Amino acid sequence: MEAFTQHTGLTVPLDRANVDTDAIIPKQFLKSIKRSGFGPNLFDEWRYLDHGEPGMDNSQRPINPDFVLNFPRYKGGSILLARENFGCGSSREHAPWALEDYGFKAVIAPSFADIFFNNCFKNGILPIVLDHDTVDLLFKESEANEGYKLDINLEQQTVTRPNGEVIKFEVEQDRKHSLLNGLDDIGITLQQEAAITEYENERKKRAPWLFNR
Amino acid sequence: MAGKTLFDKLWDDHLVAQNDDGSALIYIDRQLLHEVTSPQAFEGLKLAGRKPRRIEANLATPDHNVPTTDRTKGIEDPISRIQVQTLDDNCDEYGVTEFKMDDVRQGIVHVIGPEQGYTLPGLTMVCGDSHTATHGAFAAMAFGVGTSEVEHVLATQCLRQKKMKNMLVKVDGKLGVGVTAKDIVLAVIGEIGTAGGNGHAIEFAGSAIEDLSMEGRMTICNMAIEAGARIGLVAVDDKTIEYVKGRPFAPKGEHWDMAVKAWQDLKSDADAHFDKVVELKAEDIIPQVTWGTSPEMVKPVTGMIPNPANEASPVKKEGIERALKYMDLKADTPITQIPVDKVFIGSCTNSRIEDLREAAAVAKGRKVAASVKLAMVVPGSGLVKEQAEAEGLDKIFTEAGFQWREPGCSMCLAMNADRLEPGEHCASTSNRNFEGRQGQGGRTHLVSPGMAAAAAVFGHFTDVRELELQPITGGAN
After folding, report:
1. Buried b (16+ CB within 10 A) or exposed e, A64-97
2. Which of A119, A187, B49, B203 could cysteine-pair with B233, CB 3.0–4.6 Å?
3. What whole-number distance in Å separates Cα of residue B342 and Cα of residue B423?
4. Which residues in chain A have their CB less than 8 angstroms from residue B202's CB?
5. Is A137 exposed, middle or buried (0-12, 13-18, 19+ CB in 10 A)?
6. Are B375 and B407 a contacting pair, CB within 8 Å?
7. DSSP string, B86-106
8. Does residue B51 sit in helix, strand or coil?
9. Which residues in chain B have their CB less than 8 angstroms from residue A190's CB?
10. pLDDT tens-digit map of B203-248
11. CA angle in degrees (0–180, nearest 5) for A181-A182-A187
12. How far is Cα A209 from Cα A211, in angstroms, rounded to an integer?
């Protein structure tokens, strides 16, 4: 996994609540057995005017000019600004894979759905929770100012607005550590091999039926 | 010190290590695998040169991509075919027990787990699927994970997690005739919203929950995720144990006695503390119909489509306006005036035998309305299908004009060939009414199986409580 330490990027405001993972990456693209290549189909049903299927040449498809990701001013955006409960619905990790493949490094919202939030950290994307009023302010500023960039520093746990004002955010320490160092989660767990084996042996005694299928 | 909740007990019982950084290492007893979220996990395992830790702790079946029509010709869509083939290949290579597409035990993962007795009280279970919450009906700590965590469990049999908070949803009283578990859970989501359970494990309790069958409890826990909670739970009682007894993977002999004894404690202590409590009266619950593009956009069948003008919050107001536009519905219209083009009875929420009996009781002796283009019944597993056929339910459905299909996820998410065309309204017993969920431009209305069958018969939403129902003699399950 790619590490996340600091990132300055163009901010794209996606102004709707409860954006679900079906919207982030529709089901027909989940048939892929790969981890990459989902970026061109990120928000597919909102982004294009036709019906998308795997294998299409996306550069030839009619785009929806009213969808924020297609506004020329947001081209190259890498920080997504979103509303409440972003990423609700299905557990598909294809959602953060699509965001990452498109080029997003961070998502800022007042709240996230639990599974999506968790999946982001496994893929080098930083989901940042800020209070409703602050998110609202960022929406207003990014919509009013073309080229609006935020600077995110994970070590310091800060988001810095273009005027230099610093906003602090919270992040769980274990997730922060993994993301800062781009660590392999499975590798970390395997370091606790002895504890797992000990637990397993004890569980075998307590619940032998689970080991005797 | 306050007592423990059921969730506290399950958590503590599976705690391998509490780490200094605030995370916990939790042991995962069992995992369910399907074709959509597992290929990259097996690939990751291979690339890292890792071996599965306890391959016997996994059970697999293809469900999302499988056709619900004649399967003798295989899967027509080449991309779907490759995905299912990849699951078969991985299971064969690693020795995972798999119910392949032509196995009578094949079905939706969340139907076959309980059906096989693979889901047991007191265990931890994960699957790369958010509806894993279903298995909490057995007082099991079950939750959906992403593909990285599927791989993590394959490699380590553990997950690093942060403990969720405790939430209690208490439903006391008696449900009216024609009101079901689906209506309870939709009413709960209407009350607390789709983010109401974020960061929590929800325990469903109260006399109305105790009165439900195991199928009903599964329907409720299944949709905990639609309220934002990864985990839904119901305490163990005699019904739980009776349901599990004798199933293929259930403990046998002295292990059975030992297990039953251990399971008795799987309930919250009387003085347990919950961080959040929501109470509903069963008598107040009326059959529910979603009108919008989020499960929280729900009304009783006797109600009207809301008017955004009455909404104070600008974000919510805009949400309602956008939903009405997408659904092509007008504010203040009675729910019963919404016409239905297609009807889907199935999904991990409502495709078990009891659900099919409930729909058949409405369909029996009636006909699907001429205005309805397609009404389909998709059993949750090959064994549910067999049982339904033994009870004659298939005949009731086909005589009424419903199509009787092969088991799978089908039009719940339309990854196979079953889908809505743009603009079509569907009465669906599934769990999500998101934009495009059942096909691009499709318009989903979530309802109970009885309400779906009633919509099929009348061509628009109809209060199932007003219908005379034919007794279905399935007997006790």
Report:
1. beebbbeeeebeebbbbbbbbbbbbbbbbbbbbb
2. B203
3. 11
4. none
5. middle
6. no
7. HHHHHHHHHT-EE--TTSTT-
8. coil
9. 155-156
10. 999 999 999 999 999 999 999 999 999 999 999 999 999 999 999 9
11. 100
12. 5
Q: Is A194 on the interface with B (CB under 8 A)?
A: no
Q: How far apart are CA A208 and CA A204, in angstroms?
A: 5
Q: Using a CB-CB distance cutoff of 8 angstroms, which residues of chain B are in contact with residue A213?
A: 56, 249
The type of residue at B391 is: E
pLDDT classification of A213: cutoffs 50, 70, 90: low
Count of CB atoms within 10 A of residue B191's CB?
A: 15
B-proximal residues of A, 47-106, CB under 8 Å: 51, 54-55, 83-85, 88-93, 96
What token pair was written down for B5? Answer: 């909740």
Q: Identify which of B33, B59, B238, B248 has the alpha carbon closest to the alpha carbon of residue B147.
A: B33
Q: A19 in helix, strand or coil?
A: coil
Average pLDDT over residues B60-66: 97
Whether B146 sits inside 8 A of A33 (CB atoms) is no
B393-400 vs B353-363: helix crossing angle, rounded to 10 = 40
Higher pLDDT, B475 or B98: B98
Place of tokens 């027909």: A28
From chain B, the residues in CB contact with A195 under 8 A are 16-17, 25
- Using CA atoms of B291, B294, B299, B300 in order, give the dihedral in degrees to the nearest 10: 100
**Token pair for A54:** 């795997």
Average pLDDT over residues B110-131: 98
Q: Is the ipTM of this complex over 0.90?
A: yes
Integer Cα distance of B62 and B9 in angstroms: 33
Cross-chain CB nearest to B440 (options A45, A54, A119): A45
Mutate one of A2, A14, A18 to test the B interface: name it (highest B CB count within 10 A): A18
The closest of B93, B117, B115, B77 to B38, measured between CA atoms, is B93
Q: B374-377 and B58-60: which strand pairing?
A: unpaired
Is A172–B199 a contact, with Cβ atoms under 8 angstroms apart?
no
Q: Side chain identity at B101, as an amino acid letter? A: M
User: Average pLDDT for residues A58-83, to the nearest whole number?
Assistant: 98
Cβ contacts of B315 on chain A, cutoff 8 Å: 17, 83-84
CA B17-B18-B22 angle, 5° bins = 145
Which of A55, A83, A90 has its CB closest to that of B315?
A: A83
C-alpha–C-alpha distance, residues A30 and B476, integer Å = 39
Band of pLDDT at residue B475, cut at 50, 70 and 90: low
Contact at CB, B162 and A172, closer than 8 angstroms: yes
Q: How near does any CA of chain A get to the CA of B351, in Å?
A: 19
Are residues B413 and A177, on separate chains, in Cβ contact within 8 Å?
Answer: no
Residue the block writes with tokens 């509806």 = B131
Give the residue carrying structure tokens 């939790």: B26
